[in-house]
Backbone:
């Protein structure tokens, strides 16, 4: 059986996809920092039909579970674009989701 995550076909052994590439995430196109050699194996698309998958040049950049407040995986490095005063939108969204879930859960825990 083939792995779910596989090397990017066009790369030679030891090469990486490095640089700033456009990524469609959260309804907008953003330039994101990349440093990787692997991608999602599209042979498994049928198993991920409940996921929204955003591609750039045939490479899965973002996989997000539909209907979940914050269940996603990304190929780029949002930590490179973050600071204490300006966190990347992915971290802002995660914290907003945590806060919302926490507020919703308080009533159910009592």
Residues:
């Amino acid at each position: 059986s083939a792995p779910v995550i596989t090397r990017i076909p066009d790369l030679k052994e030891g090469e990486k996809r490095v640089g700033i590439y456009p990524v469609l995430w959260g309804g907008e196109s953003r330039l994101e920092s990349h440093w990787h050699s692997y991608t999602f194996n599209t042979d498994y698309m049928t198993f991920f039909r409940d996921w929204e998958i955003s591609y750039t040049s045939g490479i899965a950049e973002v996989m997000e579970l539909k209907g979940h407040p914050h269940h996603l995986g990304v190929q780029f490095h949002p930590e490179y674009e973050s600071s204490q005063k300006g966190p990347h939108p992915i971290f802002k969204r995660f914290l907003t989701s945590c806060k919302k879930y926490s507020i919703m859960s308080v009533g159910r825990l009592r």
